[in-house]
Amino acid sequence: MRACQPTVEGVVERDGVAVRFERYGEGEPAILLLPTWTLVHARHWKMQIAYLARHFSALCFDGPGNGGSYTSTEPAAYSDVAYARNAVAVLDAAEVDKAVLVGLSCAASWGLRLRAEHPGRVLGAVFIAPAVPLMPRLPERRVQRFDAVFDDPVDWEKYNAHHWKTDYPDFVRFLMGRIFTEPHSTKQIEDATGWALETDGETLVASDLGLLGFDERTTRKLAARGTCPVLVIHGSDDAVRGHGEGAALAELTGGELVTIAGGGHFPHTRDPVRVNMLIKQFADGVAR
Amino acid sequence: MRARLPDRTGVVDRDGVRVAYEVFEHNGPTLLLIPPSAITHGRVWKGIVGTLARHFRMLITDGLGTGGSDRPLDPRRHAPAEVNADLCALLDAEGVDVAVVVAHCHAVPWALRLAADHPERVLGVVAISPEIEVAREHDHWNPKLAPPGWDLHNKSLWRTEGGYRKWIEFFFDQQLPEPHSTKQYEDGVGWALDTAAEAKIAGDAGLGEPTADEAEQLCATLRCPMLVIHGSVDLCQPVARGIRLAELTDADLVILDGSGHLPHARDPVKVIRLITGFVHRITGEPMTTTTWTRGRSRAKRALYLSSPIGLGHARRDVAVAKELKTLHPELEIDWLAQDPVTRVLEAEGERIHPASRWLASESAHIAAESTGHDLHCFQALRRMDEILVANFMVFQEVVEEGCYDLTVGDEAWDVDYYWHENPELKRGQNVWLTDFVGFLPMPDGGDHEAYLTTDYNAEMIEHIDRFPWIRDRAIFVGSGQDVVPDTFGGQLPAIRDWTNEHFAYSGYITGFTPPDPEEIPAIRERLGYREDEMVCVVAVGGSGVGRALIDKVVAAYPLAKKAMPELRMIVVTGPRIDPATFPERAGLEVRGYVDRLYEHLSVCDLAVVQGGLTTTMELAAAKRPFLYFPLGHHFEQNFHVRHRLERYRAGTCMDYATGDPDDIAARITELAGKPVDYRDVETEGAERAAHLIAELL
Fold first, then answer.
1. Based on the domain organization, do B392 and B455 belong to the same domain?
2. Would B407 be classed as within a structural domain?
């Protein structure tokens, strides 16, 4: 059973594609839980929704390629511009004027774009484990070559288009080990693996290519244009996107940084209580 | 002493009538606190100001008729419009654009009018125990229906000799229905009687409280967020008024169940947290860059609090902490401590929590409470109430942020008291350490002091009966025999029986090992003491309170020297007494500070000291003859320490009041260098205490 059921389940059509969204609760402000990379869908917010719906209202939607929204094998469908348009369409459809954004990992891209381009609709933005191209790759990821063909890829060599298309479950298995560096994460790994296996390697390749346009220059430009408050939450032991990325984003946006010492890349599922309380404190502050 | 002094005081003068106020500077939002003058003044906020001033900018007015303000007798000068103008003038004078206004009782309508007339200046209102006509008042304000006592609310009576005091004493008794409110009662009566009946009569006459209709209209015009705090057993203002006011203004309502009319005085911790939460809600709680460590990633951490009254606690606590670290090498210990404890901790390389700088000084308070050779330590502790609550709030913030597994409080009165008063705030395991149990009255305090000590003991006993889970372990530094044979007073149990049931015994903790007899000659030589001289060390501890005793002993010196020519007297004055202010005499040396004083004490031929536990027990452990003079009115030194020393057959108790230089000289010559038959002082105390604590980790 879910902890709570949606108040509204809807589908909004945006430029000919259908975006599925859910609204939980009636309170103000709305917390817009952004989709992240296609690896998982909106269920990854399952530990946040009931709590946020009780204090505010929670709004979430699936991105392309995984979950109940449209799918595509065209990289353009996965650009940050497309995600931002989906988000605005969902806000319109749910009749939400202003929201607090919460985004995980590469949702920082569309989060930053929404914050910069729709200042009237964004009260504040929480970036959890943000993936932003502000720092060099983590040392262990320097072996990764997305377009190469490895016979028997190991470790981050598995972050590779060919491998995803040939042995997607193996990549998922590997990545889960890097996302959840905290001991005793079996349930979180099972959940995320299940969501990941609802899509396929082909789609993931397209989604990854779609993100390429979000380079350092774009990041800095959009971060500078936005004005609303920012909170960054980043695990000290994040083995997917280093803690330095979160710190750099906080600095760039003038936001506050909360470090989860001992935390990995999915702190919202692994330390949901602390993350929920941080989101609430932040939302209370920006919505007063 | 106050927990914190204002950064500035100011006066607004409107047409020659002056209203006094205090300012506590801070970058945060401004809070304007309005007391219900002329029944009381700005000091009524003493329990909450020290803490709020760490988070907000504070403006505290005395209100007309009280404190530092003028006492106009024309009722028209007390009219609501005039009060409103005074408050605006104050805000103008301080350049305050917007403020959150906190008001109590009949100051609440003033705050509401300010918010209604100047909505742009009032961010929010906290109304505590509001006196406002939105619901019926208690019958006892109606002369025809008033129960006994309330008829003292009578202007004619107030104008008679002692009449106003009668009313005030009755009234504050009614305001504090909570048991064990003696200190709040004394404070309230004292502040009320700071002013004369005529000023209060003028204030009442000019009060111009809104009628029921006016009050409802006033509420309807308010737009700012509000918080109403009201005690369920408020005998001055019925809680129905707070409830109705909250309905009419769409305010947050917090009913304090079991509280009377003065929750900010009687439950300061709760009220501070409510006000802080409200202000943060309306102004935004600042998010701060910080680290939260996952539970599994945390090292075991302890927060150690060591009472700063005397240095004895510091040394024994360092000894216990060292033993604790041998039992749990991974344990990180932070100290929340203040001077002079921090000097010992710094020398030992211990880690002092940075929030320590926020602590209000307990030792300065104790010094301020001392005169001559006298320190009424029970009353001094009572009068330390606002320092204790301010320091507790620092502590609470530290434990909430620091995720400590364990708190050890060596006579940390603030933690022990306020965790029992606010048990939901407890974090982690908690150890209470003390070397005495039971407040005892001094005989010359009469029945009233016995009533007070009994009341304090009863409150402590009730605390522990009701919330046995606040003290996870209570350790008595000593053995069962060291507990005094008295009772807690009244119908309360015998102290020793109760302590046996509620404490574990560690044995005495010296914090140092006394030298073996064969080591003594070498130490004496190193310290410059010859075999053929009688070395008498006179020491009075670190506070300024020792001057009177030193003067008397120095006066005895020539007499003693005459009878004992080999006498050499070393007087150690401590940092607060200037050695240059004593007469020069052959064989008499006056020093301000002596490094490792305990070494001197442990090899001297005689010591003359006050009645403090640590120094006397060091002498007992080192088997030195000594004279000790308990401080006047210091129940701990006069009863608890003396009882313990007698059990060890150690030292000779002297009465400062009756002991003249002749007596002192005679005792010095009689006892210097004489063998003693003291009972051995245990040396395993720190280890035993550490074991008792370590079991909790």
1. yes
2. yes
Q: Say if the Cβ atoms of A261 and B297 lie within 8 Å.
A: yes
Question: Which residues of chain B lie closer than 8 angstroms to A281, CB-CB?
Answer: 285, 287
**CB nearest B294 (choices: A271, A281, A285):** A271
Q: Which of B123, B276, B287, B332 to mutate to test the interface with A (most CBs of A within 10 A)?
A: B287
B3 part of a folded domain = no
Phi/psi at B123 (5° precision): -75, -30
User: Considering its fold, how many domains does chain B have in total?
Assistant: 3
Range of the domain at A44: 8-136+211-287
Ordered mean pLDDT values, 10 residues apiece, chain B (697 residues): 95 96 95 95 96 97 94 95 97 97 98 97 98 94 90 94 96 97 98 93 93 96 97 97 98 98 98 96 84 93 90 88 96 94 92 96 90 94 95 96 95 97 97 98 97 97 98 98 97 98 96 88 95 94 79 95 96 86 90 87 96 94 97 96 98 95 96 96 95 97
Token pair listed for A1:
């059973």
Cβ contacts of B179 within 8 Å, gap of 6 or more: B459
| Nearest beta carbon to residue B281 from set A183, A260, A284 | A284
Asked if B462 and B547 sit in the same domain, the reply is no
Indicate the number of domains in chain A: 1
Residue A174 phi/psi, 5-degree rounding, is: -60, -50
Looking at the domain assignment, is residue A183 inside a domain?
Answer: no
Contact present, A235 and A129 (Cβ < 8 Å)? yes
Does residue B681 lie within any of the structural domains?
A: no
Please give the interface size between A and B, counted as residue pairs whose CB atoms are below 8 Å apart.
52
Global pTM reads 0.91
Beta strand ranges found along B62-114 (DSSP E): 99-104
Helix, strand, coil tally for chain A in percent (to 5): 45, 15, 40
Question: What are the b/e assignments for A115-133, b being 16+ CB within 10 Å?
Answer: bbebeebbbbbbbbbbbbb
Q: Looking at the domain assignment, is residue B41 inside a domain?
A: yes
Tell me if B288 and A256 make a contact (CB, 8 A cut-off).
Answer: yes
- Chain A neighbors of B287, CB-CB under 8 A: 229, 231, 256, 258, 281-282, 285
CA distance A161 to A136: 21
Q: What are the start-end ranges of the H helices in chain A? A: 46-55, 80-93, 107-117, 161-179, 186-196, 201-210, 216-225, 243-253, 267-270, 272-287
B578: domain range? 517-671
Q: Are B537 and B475 in the same domain?
A: no
Token pair of B193 as six digits: 């009687």
Distance from B288 to chain A by nearest Cα, in Å? 6
